[in-house]
Design a protein that fits this description.
Blueprint (H helix, E strand, L loop, with lengths): L5 E9 L7 E7 L9 E8 L11 E8 L5 E7 L5 E5 L10 H10 L2 E3 L16 E8 L7 H16 L5 E7 L3 E3 L5 E2 L2 H12 L10 H9 L7 E8 L6 H10 L4 E8 L5 H9 L5 E4 L6 H11 L4 E10 L1 H17 L6 E5 L4 E8 L2 E4 L9 E2 L2 E3 L5 E3 L1 H5 L8 E2 L2 H4 L7 H7 L5 E5 L2 E6 L2 E3 L1 H20 L5 E6 L5 H13 L3 E7 H12 L6 E8 L4 E9 L1 E11 L4 H20 L12 H24 L5 E10 L2 E8 H7 L1 H18 L8 E5 L6 H10 L14 H14 L9 E7 L4 E5 L3 E6 L4 E2 L1 E9 L7 E7 L9 E8 L11 E8 L5 E7 L5 E5 L8 H11 L1
Parallel strand pairs: 8-9, 8-12, 12-13, 13-14, 16-26, 26-27, 28-33, 30-34
Antiparallel strand pairs: 1-4, 1-7, 2-3, 4-5, 5-6, 9-10, 9-11, 15-38, 16-17, 17-18, 17-19, 20-21, 20-22, 23-24, 24-25, 28-29, 29-30, 31-32, 34-37, 35-36, 35-39, 38-41, 39-40, 41-42, 42-43
Helix pairs in contact: 2-3, 2-7, 12-13, 14-20, 15-16
This protein binds adenosine-5'-triphosphate and magnesium ion.
Family: Belongs to the heat shock protein 70 family.
GO molecular function, one term: ATP binding
Pfam family, one: HSP70
């Protein structure tokens, strides 16, 4: 948020003795760890005169001119020798990776006074005491002690301002640099650096006595103590050391760093695990800086202590609000139209409730569903839907589909990586966010979805002969919070006010309920297998109410996967016969080869989908593509049996998901009254057969149209929320949804503490009470995950934020209440409150992988 043009200068020092040059790496972003940000460029500053570490100064100046161009200049102060880089130029581009690593390792700069690590804007009020315990026994002689010294220097240089610190070295006995921890001043730092240089290794190793000494020191009031132990070997009395560390957990957190191969791994791991910290192992010739900075990063972000159970269920209260909101809508009968949109992976459908019934709105060519395709033509036009799909093979690299398989995911998502191998268009990594190259631009998947939604909106406007602004858009039940948010953003960009994002099986259930209302209570299973996603929902339908008991699913399983298996089979057969690999060349650097290969694959995919559909009604089909490769035609016969075999594992998976949903709903199979099929892929005979057999030969419900049910239900919801339908005119007035996955926070030790369990009814507001883990902990990092694994990081990361301003007190004396609210749209808000001060920190999960409001606005400006 600095105004431009601007010019800023900062002073740095050399990190090593006789350092001749410095690697200047320029990053952009907000992470305290340089590498977590975006690398803008780098260059080497040569010609630093040989001098002891820290003696030579380098000024780094950054200037952004009025045009926004960044110019970085580094100058050796004593010689005034300088070097600069206009960002965008890649100065060290030709250097080998090895040379670069070496340069980085040896030629760092250390910032003067102003520590570069502390995320000052966030953890402004946490105060720390750092104690470093350094092994200087005989085994440390030579290489290890040199590495240990460098490590310690890096640690010392990275400490935050206003901390206290001390260094204690241990061998048979121990010594302390300062009699007690001292303030982190330039003078004390210089003194410590001199002391570090003097260290050498000799003698035995006892850690117990120095640790006892450290723990016996009075804690500095208001400061959180963090102890770092650096060792390369074994210590006597290991078990006692570990027991001692564990007993002191409230007084301090303990981190450990093991050097080399001879180290006692159990000691290093034990020290950290017994006291809430983390451990790392480093070897002599690796880039150890990241590991050390990671330890410090963790040390600077104290965690929450495991929860004690005080759960407040305020759901009823939320429901009342929800009801009231709906009533208000009912009163407003002068309504604008509100449509329901099923935004599918492969086909989309739009509907509206008007004049007492739901109308499925046909598209420009009279069809009820529209292919989810957007094509950018060579002459700068955009084709959407049917024309885009039909002509995909002409222009495959600029014909985009499957945006729903990309939206809300990260670039390194394993499913995305697999999909990319077959897509004829290119997806690139834009700092972790996947973007699509199309029409000469880099587009967010949200932008593709927005173009589709805009087209559906236009179809509705033509049908209704008036403007349409409001809509309900559906998403798979098993979409994560990020995927829902991104879909909502797409709606916004299509110029729509998104009344709610509704889950697809719930919408289908509404359609079912409205078409079959005998008034009896029924347990219904919705089986929705579409083009790209699979959802299962178990619902209870009773008079006036639809209640979702559980949902489960797979956001990456559907008709396209069956097409893909068929394509691979055909390619295999083709290769056997003609010795040509149809996939070859799809990633070629030669544009012509690449385009040809992709065009070929797209033609094959289209044909495979057609024959797959044919196999639903006949027992054999022949996949034929003229001039598949050069002059060679493809002709592969596929029987229904063969098709079933190719997809056997995927079909089985759908049944497993059904069972999981039943378990979550606490219902036995026999308790299901109706099984409702939704989604085009439920027309596959084998899928129906397996599902029926699984329920003991039960008949499946075919009454609702599998392609239109979702849009139908969404239209009803839209009418209901919009007030087009008066509340009492419907034969139900309440739809109760549930969360697809558990949501919680990471706690001390890396565990996952669930706050909103899987299958909780929404809207919901739940709170969990935590405690501070350590004495004098004044801030805490709240990290939010979604999933079912006990280890927090194994789940999907939704976002994080900090709570500052906790009064410094003894460990566990402060309560921290973390509250999570999921509104009726399934969108999550999290807040944390320190109980004694009422200090509050709120986060609507806005992670950096979402499109920013600026980007959304730019899109809107462009289309309008
Ligand atoms: N008779 C059929 N046999 C097999 N598959 C079919 C048949 N008819 C349609 N399909 C497949 O169904 C899929 C489209 O279904 P649908 O329109 O329900 O999905 P979607 O809404 O695009 O996707 P999703 O709901 O997963 O986002 C396509 O993969 C299509 O090939
Ligand atoms: Mg669908």
């Amino acid at each position: 948020n600095t105004k431009i043009p601007t010019i800023h200068k900062d002073a740095y020092r050399t990190f090593r003795d006789n350092q001749e040059n410095a690697m200047i790496r320029i990053y952009q972003g907000e992470s305290p760890i340089a590498q977590d940000n975006t690398l803008l460029g780098e260059f080497v500053l040569n010609g630093i005169p040989p001098a002891p570490a820290g003696k030579e100064c380098v000024d780094v100046t950054m200037e952004i001119d009025a045009m926004g161009v960044l110019n970085v200049k580094a100058m050796v102060k004593s010689t005034r020798g300088q070097q600069s880089l206009k960002v965008g130029e890649k100065r060290t581009g030709r250097m080998s990776q090895g040379t670069k690593q070496k340069l980085l390792l040896e030629n760092q700069l250390v910032q003067i006074r102003n520590p570069f690590l502390l995320p000052t804007s966030k953890l402004d009020d946490q105060k720390f005491e750092f104690i470093f315990m350094l092994d200087v026994s005989g085994s440390m002689g030579g290489q290890p002690i040199e590495l240990a010294k460098r490590t310690l220097l890096l640690f010392l240089h990275s400490l935050p301002e206003n901390c206290y610190f001390n260094v204690i070295t241990f061998r048979g006995n121990f010594t302390s640099f300062f009699p007690a921890s001292v303030r982190y001043t330039q003078q004390n730092l210089e003194y410590a650096k001199i002391k570090v240089q003097e260290l050498y290794g000799s003698g035995g190793t006892t850690l117990l006595a120095p640790l006892r000494y450290v723990y016996s020191q009075p804690q500095i009031e208001g400061y959180l103590t963090q102890i770092f132990t650096i060792t390369d070997g074994h210590v006597s009395n290991r078990d006692e050391v570990l027991a001692l560390v564990a007993s002191q957990v409230k007084h301090s957190r303990s981190f450990s760093l093991g050097i080399g191969n001879g180290v006692d791994r159990n000691l290093v791991i034990g020290i950290a695990e017994n006291a809430g910290g983390m451990y790392e192992f480093v070897t002599y010739n690796e880039m150890f800086e990241t590991k050390i900075l990671n330890q410090l990063k963790t040390a600077l972000r104290p965690a929450l202590l495991k929860p004690i159970r005080v759960q407040l269920q305020l759901q009823e209260g939320m429901n009342l609000i929800f009801e009231k909101y709906k009533q208000q809508n009912d009163m407003n009968l002068e309504t604008e139209p509100a449509i329901g949109i099923d935004l599918g992976t492969t086909y989309s459908c739009v509907a509206i409730y008007a004049k007492g019934k739901v109308h499925i709105i046909p598209n420009g060519i009279g069809k009820n569903t529209t292919p989810s395709y957007v094509a950018f033509t060579k002459d700068g036009k955009e084709n959407i839907g049917e024309p885009a799909k039909n002509r995909a093979y002409e222009n495959p690299e600029d014909t985009i589909f499957d945006a729903k398989r990309i939206i809300g995911r990260r670039f390194n998502d394993i499913n995305l990586q697999n999909d990319m191998k077959l897509w004829p268009f290119t997806v690139v990594d834009d700092f972790g966010v996947p973007k699509i190259l199309a029409g000469g631009k880099k587009l967010h998947p949200e932008e593709i979805s927005a173009k589709l939604l805009r087209e559906l909106k236009k179809d509705a406007e033509r049908y209704l002969q008036r403007d349409v602004k409001k809509a309900v858009i559906t998403v798979p039940a098993y979409f994560t919070d990020g995927q829902r948010q991104a879909t909502k953003d797409a709606g916004l960009m299509a110029g729509l006010e998104v009344l709610t994002v509704q889950t697809e099986p719930t919408a289908a259930a509404i359609a079912y309920k409205l078409q079959h209302s005998e008034g009896k209570d029924r347990n219904v299973l919705i089986f929705d297998l579409g083009g790209g996603t699979f959802d299962v929902a178990v619902l209870k339908m009773s008079k006036g109410k639809i209640e979702v008991l559980a949902v489960d699913g797979d956001t990456h399983l559907g008709g396209e996967d069956f097409d893909k298996n068929m394509m691979e089979y055909c390619a295999q057969e083709f290769k056997k016969k003609h010795k040509v690999d149809l996939f070859e060349g799809k990633d070629s650097a030669n544009k012509q080869t690449k385009d040809e290969a992709r065009r070929r694959l797209k033609r094959l995919q289209g044909e495979c989908e057609r024959k797959k559909i044919e196999l639903a009604t006949s027992i054999a089909a022949v996949v034929t593509v003229d001039r598949m490769h050069g002059r060679t035609d493809l002709s592969v016969s596929v029987t229904r049996e063969m098709f079933n075999k190719l997809n056997e594992n995927l079909f089985k998976k759908t049944i497993e998901v059904v069972d999981k949903a039943l378990v979550a709903a606490k219902l036995q199979k026999s308790k299901i009254d109706d099984i409702v099929l939704v989604g085009g892929s439920t027309r596959i005979p084998k899928v129906q057969e397996m599902l029926g057999a699984h329920f003991g030969g039960k008949a499946l419900d075919h009454y609702i149209n599998p392609d239109e049910a979702v849009a139908y239900g969404a239209a009803m919801t839209a009418a209901y929320m919009n007030g087009t339908i008066a509340k009492n005119s419907m034969d139900f007035n309440k739809v109760q949804d549930v969360t697809p996955m558990s949501i919680g926070v990471e706690v001390y030790g890396g565990g996952f503490s669930v706050i909103i369990p899987k299958s909780t009814k929404v809207p919901v507001k739940l709170m969990e009470r935590y405690k501070t883990a350590h004495n004098n902990q004044t801030s805490v990092q709240i990290t939010i995950y979604q999933g079912e694994d006990k280890i927090a990081v194994h789940n999907q990361h939704l976002g994080d934020f900090y709570l500052n301003g906790i009064p410094p007190r003894a460990a566990e004396l402060e309560n921290i209440d973390v509250e999570m609210v999921i509104n009726s749209q399934g969108i999550l808000h999290v807040s944390a409150v320190s109980s004694s001060t009422g200090h509050k920190s709120v986060s609507i999960i806005e992670n950096k992988f979402r499109m920013g409001s600026g980007a959304i606005q730019r899109f809107l400006d462009e289309v309008n």
